[in-house]
């Protein structure tokens, strides 16, 4: 059995600089949402892979409600349209991203027309998979709720049974120094999360579950049992 000390020596686990408190695959522990993107274009094969990752996500009744508008800087007109949909505070940094994406969710089941209660959830999972695949390829994703959904429907002729949900900037991350000073400061602010104790319950709502006691002296590497 590995001790916490053993695990700490492996980069993959306990990358303390990020405040990660349990064994975690490094794709998740190092992921973050940068504002600083390099001008380097994303290779077509990598772009294909991130959408393939989205495609293989689970969904309610395998409905696969996710749709995506994507534009690289080469798709000048669509790229400009997607950029213009963003709120100004997002445009300031997203304009550097070589790829912009709009995530759209189908709002009713295709087989019976009933409301699709989990459609946003399913789109979110597909974007999560896309994000992790991007991380594995050395790319980074920054999702944005700050965009004009009504204009997206109009300008992109999105059919009425679909809802624009999320805008996404994708590209290679770059140094914070290339950003204006205020954005550079935000870029350098450490990522933070609520403690697990506030999130996971067993006995009753609000009481930390015994299953997430991260003070435990010995933690097994959950990946070593596979
Ligand atoms: C649904 C959603 C909407 C978001 N909207 C914005 C946004 O409009 N602008 C922005 O700068 N970041 C946005 N973010 C990014 C979050 O602020 C970011 O994920 C969060 O602060 C955690 O930081 P991290 O991803 O670096 O861990 C959004 C993220 C999600 C998932």
Describe the protein's architecture and organization:
The chain has helices at residues 4-8, 26-29, 44-55, 76-85, 88-94, 119-136, 149-155, 181-188, and strands at 66-72, 99-106, 140-144, 162-171. It is α+β, with helices and mostly antiparallel strands. Bound molecules: flavin mononucleotide. Flavin mononucleotide binds next to strand 3.
What is the third-level CATH name, the topology of the domain at 33-190?
NADH Oxidase
Overall mean pLDDT stands at: 88
Give the name of the CATH architecture of the domain at 33-190: 3-Layer(aba) Sandwich
Could you tell me the radius of gyration in angstroms?
20 Å
Cofactors and ligands present?
A: flavin mononucleotide
Total helix count? 8
CATH hierarchy, class of the domain at 33-190: Alpha Beta
What is the structural class?
alpha+beta
Unreliable stretches (pLDDT < 50, length at least 5) are 1-17, 217-226
Distance between the termini: 14 Å
Q: Give the SSE order as H and E letters.
A: HHHEHHEHEHEH
CATH 4th-level superfamily of the domain at 33-190:
NADH Oxidase
For the biggest β-sheet, the strand order reads 1-2-4-3
- Strand percentage lies at 5-15%
Largest sheet: 4 strands, antiparallel
Quantity of strands, as a count? 4
Helix content: 25-40%
Shape: globular
Blueprint (SSEs and pairs):
Layout (H helix, E strand, L loop, with lengths): L3 H5 L17 H4 L14 H12 L10 E7 L3 H10 L2 H7 L4 E8 L12 H18 L3 E5 L4 H7 L6 E10 L9 H8 L38
Helix pairs in contact: 3-6
The site of flavin mononucleotide has 9 residues, from strand 3.
């Amino acid at each position: 059995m590995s001790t916490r000390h053993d695990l700490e020596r492996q980069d993959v686990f306990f990358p303390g600089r990020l405040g990660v408190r349990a064994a975690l695959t490094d794709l998740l522990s190092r992921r973050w949402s940068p504002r600083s993107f390099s001008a380097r274009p994303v290779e077509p094969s990598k772009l294909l892979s991130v959408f393939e990752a989205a495609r293989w996500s689970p969904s309610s009744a395998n409905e696969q409600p996710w749709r995506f508008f994507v534009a690289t800087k080469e798709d000048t007109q669509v790229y400009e349209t997607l950029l213009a949909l963003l709120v100004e505070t997002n445009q300031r940094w997203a304009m550097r991203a070589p790829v912009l994406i709009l995530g759209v969710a189908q709002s009713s089941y295709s087989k019976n027309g009933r409301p699709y209660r989990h459609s946003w959830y399913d789109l979110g999972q597909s974007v999560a998979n896309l994000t992790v695949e991007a991380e594995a390829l050395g790319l980074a994703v920054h999702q944005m709720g700050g965009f004009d959904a009504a204009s997206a429907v109009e300008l992109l002729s999105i059919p009425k049974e679909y809802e624009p949900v999320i805008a996404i900037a994708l590209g290679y991350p770059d140094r914070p120094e290339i950003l204006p000073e205020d954005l550079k400061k935000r870029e350098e602010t450490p990522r933070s999360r609520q403690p697990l104790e506030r999130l996971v319950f067993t006995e009753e709502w609000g009481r930390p579950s015994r299953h997430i006691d991260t003070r435990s002296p010995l933690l097994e590497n959950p990946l070593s049992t596979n």
